[in-house]
């Protein structure tokens, strides 16, 4: 029998807890001013190793939001920890810590809280396509030193999912909810569009649950994409509109390779996406977005202070970018709120390139260190851009939006 999962909210903090282990803080003194509110979500069901089906409801293991699976993606994951002899011991420790935390989360269904550093709302940052005239020799030397070719690390095929996020949870999670972006296809259009409430979730981060509600999730696309089918398992099946939407928007949804690397118990995961090419009479500008998750696997809190990026273009140019924080924030990663996820954009005047770099982190005991961002390729694809999506979108201008000042950036 599954555990009954409820949402417990007090003093603007969210927790997802099973009823059998509902714990109230001893220092609650303002229950009259902040009464406890309970809302039933559903019942946890047993996690599975095989792929989940379209329509499966779930809780995100790290960020705690409610979601529903739209369709699976197959991605090749390059985990540099598994191929670095100097990290074999630390990787084992990190994996054990992560597995223990996963086990604890499955019991307590821990969710993220808005009380810590706030969610990265809305604006992904953007870097312009202009580059330094660094010498090709310097670029080649830097690339060789950084060993940015991801193919040197053997990739492993894993399942990821395109999901819808419950809009009620969006303000309370430390992950951007407009991570899926695309370029407008109109002539001379400098606009960037975002599809809100979508995310990419790894199989191991899915905590499945069931619900008796016909519309258990609040998202304007839920009823357009899924229909309630009580006799099915899961009891929500995809409509023809979901398949048509997936096929139509494939260029913006298609995942590239996933890259992971751990430094000092902080794991960085990067997923790049090709967005298309802007043709002008003078040049062609190729655009990518990338999603980055920072996850603290240790016992001490760390805070992100600075970023340091190096961007190599096939044209032979190399750009170095430094700055404070990411997307205007310096998030704290604690054992209670271990993860932060954001998206950003980068452009090149060549069809391919590489990115790599470091995050400067400061631990609560005062120790500072550089956390490696795993190198990843920026590869373009043949242009076959369909009309813009019919789903609800948010609009940003690439030139005027002040939030589009890269993180690559």
Automatic annotation (TrEMBL):
PROSITE patterns recorded: APAG
Region annotated Disordered, chain positions: 85-150, 374-409
Biased composition (Basic and acidic residues): 394-409
Record field: compositional bias (Polar residues): 87-100
Biased composition (Low complexity): 115-129
Gene Ontology CC annotations of this record: mitochondrial nucleoid; nucleus
ApaG domain span: 260-385
InterPro entries: ApaG_domain, ApaG_sf, Hemimethylated_DNA-bd_dom
Domain of life: Eukaryota
Protein's GO biological process: error-free translesion synthesis
GO MF, one annotated term: DNA binding
Record SMART domains: YccV-like
Gene3D superfamilies: ApaG domain
Transmembrane segments: none
Protein name: ApaG domain-containing protein
Provenance organism: Drosophila ananassae (Fruit fly)
Gene assigned in the entry: Dana\GF17253
């Amino acid at each position: 029998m599954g555990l009954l999962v409820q949402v417990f909210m007090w003093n603007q903090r969210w927790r997802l807890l099973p009823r059998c282990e509902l714990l109230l803080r001893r220092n609650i003194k303002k229950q009259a001013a902040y009464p406890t509110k309970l809302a039933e979500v559903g019942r946890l069901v047993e996690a599975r190793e095989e792929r989940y089906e379209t329509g499966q409801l779930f809780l995100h293991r790290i960020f705690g939001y409610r979601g529903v699976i739209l369709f699976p993606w197959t991605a090749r994951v390059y985990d540099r920890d598994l191929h670095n002899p100097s990290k074999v011991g630390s990787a084992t420790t990190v994996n054990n810590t992560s597995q223990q935390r996963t086990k604890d989360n499955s019991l307590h269904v821990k969710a993220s809280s808005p009380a810590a550093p706030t969610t990265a709302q809305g604006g992904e940052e953007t870097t312009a396509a202009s580059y330094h005239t660094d010498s090709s020799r310097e670029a080649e030397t830097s690339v060789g030193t950084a060993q940015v070719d991801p193919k040197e690390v053997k990739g492993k095929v894993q399942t990821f999912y395109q999901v819808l996020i419950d809009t009620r949870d969006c303000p309370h999670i430390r992950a951007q909810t407009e991570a899926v972006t695309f370029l407008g296809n109109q002539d001379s259009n400098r606009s960037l569009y975002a599809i809100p409430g979508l995310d990419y979730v790894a199989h191991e981060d899915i905590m499945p649950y069931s619900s008796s509600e016909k519309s258990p999730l609040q998202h304007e696309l839920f009823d357009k994409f899924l229909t309630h089918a009580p006799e099915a398992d899961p009891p929500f099946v995809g409509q023809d509109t979901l398949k048509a939407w997936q096929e139509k928007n494939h260029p913006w949804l298609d995942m590239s390779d996933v890259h992971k690397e751990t430094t000092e118990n902080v794991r960085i995961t990067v997923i790049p996406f090709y967005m298309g090419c802007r043709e002008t009479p003078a040049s062609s500008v190729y655009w990518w977005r990338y999603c980055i998750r920072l996850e603290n696997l240790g016992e001490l809190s760390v805070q992100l202070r600075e970023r340091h990026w190096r961007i190599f273009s096939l044209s032979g140019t190399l750009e170095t970018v430094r700055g404070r924080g990411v997307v205007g924030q310096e998030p704290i990663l604690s054992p209670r709120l271990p993860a932060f996820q954001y998206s950003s954009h980068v452009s090149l005047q060549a069809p391919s390139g590489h990115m790599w770099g470091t995050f400067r982190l400061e631990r609560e005991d005062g120790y500072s260190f550089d956390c490696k961002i795993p190198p990843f390729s920026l590869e373009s694809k043949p242009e076959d851009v369909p009309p813009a999506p019919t789903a609800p979108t948010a609009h940003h201008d690439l030139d005027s939006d002040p939030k589009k000042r890269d993180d690559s950036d």
